[in-house]
Amino acid sequence: xxxxxxxxxxxxxxxxxxxxxxxxxxxxxxxxxxxxxxxxxxxxxxxxxxxxxxxxxxxxxxxxxxxxxxxxxxxxxxxxxxxxxxxxxxxxxxxxxxxxxxxxxxxxxxxxxxxxxxxxxxxxxxxxxxxxxxxxxxxxxxxxxxxxxxxxxxxxxxxxxxxxxxxxxxxxxxxxxxxxxxxxxxxxxxxxxxxxxxxxxxxxxxxxxxxxxxxxxxxxxxxxxxxxxxxxxxxxxxxxxxxxxxxxxx
Length: 250
Fold this sequence. Notes:
The protein is α/β, with parallel strands linked by helices. Helix content is 30%, strand content 26%.
């Protein structure tokens, strides 16, 4: 029997992709298509909730899903380690509900983050520049925050990065001591560059999304994992083997 999925944020960019994949799959079927402004009572009766809304709505979707005892897959950006810790507390010590949070469904993006996490131990100068379409409401992106947090965890025994003049607003927002610079403009889909500076050298790890089809494989992996999950799982790297270091702030 197919898993019945309620998609919250269905009219949006990612919601459209998610809906098409669910409808085309033999494993899943659409139980409800809900906008960010609709009542969340409509998720009742679903086997799995997918949240692809906006940060201000996303937490309410997760809390309502936990209240109803329904597993939820979160594809909404903007979940910091502090907010995730609150969800972990809400789930309790022996969780019966699963919450899977995936900041980026692109397998290429997850690989780029894994590479950046490995490299973080070898350079003291690190900065992130991320660019997205003009309608993206949150900044920094969830992917950039996740990348910075993982790099910070990898540097736990080394200490914070060297980031001069961060008292100036133009120097970006610091996450785990790493400055993040956000670009929001027309003509851009999604791109992240992580810059590493050393004596006489520089390394750049880049990932760019050229089409929303890049998310499809990761979405299907995440959907299948979310329907069986218990507790909080953060990141596509937890669902596929990309050789990610064991240090993790979540």
